[in-house]
UniProtKB/TrEMBL annotation:
Enzyme class: transferase
Biological process annotations from GO: purine nucleoside catabolic process
PROSITE patterns xrefs: PNP_UDP_1 (PS01232)
Name of the gene: deoD
Nucleoside phosphorylase domain ranges (all copies): 16-223
Source organism of the structure: Levilactobacillus hammesii DSM 16381
Full protein name: Purine nucleoside phosphorylase DeoD-type
């Protein structure tokens, strides 16, 4: 048991998929894992462990935003020994190069969160990066499955409703999409020397206004999950 998870030691696999939405954790467990067992219902942050092609994998809902994912990442690593963490989440397109339903691999995450300053103090603007091995595995897994992916710098912002953010400037500097967790996941993974990657699907576009129907969302979610699972067993 940890502060926020009721799983026993050994209930959670080394590799964990981490969707923000706990119901997406249930969906992944029921549709992609063999023999899934629910190990957590605390706060309805559902967590399951099962197997994928014979490999033990867990899926843990993390809630929305940096404070929430930080709690689950910390406890999965420190209380349960997780070694490979894959965020699987939705993101808003920012660059004209990405479109709804695209799968995005986050090479790194820019952030407006105070976690960087709170960790390093003034003057250090630490670049939070995904693990290159997982990124490489995901990129090649997607290629093998003929799922197109975009790779790049994303934004993990503290506010979903954020009129003050100069998104055009970030796009000019190569940021392609926005979500609310990856910088914290990468920072915590770096601190504890474990691997992390975010595999995202573009659910809406902040500039063009494109959005997805529920059926389209399901297909692109499935692509994102397949990429994460294949990368998980390849690396
Ligand atoms: O779809 P999930 O994984 O929740 O991710 C995105 O969706 C939420 C905002 O709607 C934030 O958590 C954001 O990062
Ligand atoms: O954080 C997010 C997630 C999806 N779409 C957005 O616009 N923002």
């Amino acid at each position: 048991m940890s502060n926020h998870l009721e799983a026993k030691m050994g209930d959670i696999a080394d590799t964990v998929l981490m969707p923000g939405d706990p119901l997406r954790a249930k969906y992944i467990a029921e549709n992609f894992l063999e023999n899934p067992v629910c190990y957590n219902k605390v706060r309805n942050a559902f967590g399951y462990t099962g197997t994928y092609k014979g490999h033990r994998i867990s899926v843990q809902g993390t809630g929305m935003g940096i404070p929430s994912i930080s709690i689950y990442a910390h406890e999965l690593i420190n209380d349960y020994g997780a070694k490979k963490l894959f965020r699987v989440g939705t993101a808003g397109g920012m660059s004209p190069d990405v479109h709804v339903r695209d799968v995005v691999l986050a090479q790194g995450s820019t952030t407006d969160s105070a976690i960087i300053h709170n960790t390093f103090g003034g003057g250090i603007y630490y670049a939070t990066l995904s693990d290159f091995g997982l990124l490489d595995a995901a990129y090649h897994a997607a290629k093998d499955m003929q799922i197109p992916v975009k790779v790049g710098n994303i934004l993990a912002e503290d506010r979903f409703y954020n009129d003050e953010m100069d998104r055009q400037k970030l796009v000019d500097y190569g940021v392609i999409a926005t979500e609310m967790e990856s910088a914290a996941l990468f920072l915590i993974a770096a601190k504890y020397h474990v691997k992390a990657l975010s595999v995202l699907t573009i659910s809406n576009h902040l500039v063009t206004g494109e959005s997805t129907s529920p059926e389209e969302r399901e297909t692109s979610f499935n692509d994102m999950i397949k990429v994460a699972l294949e990368a998980a067993i390849a690396d």
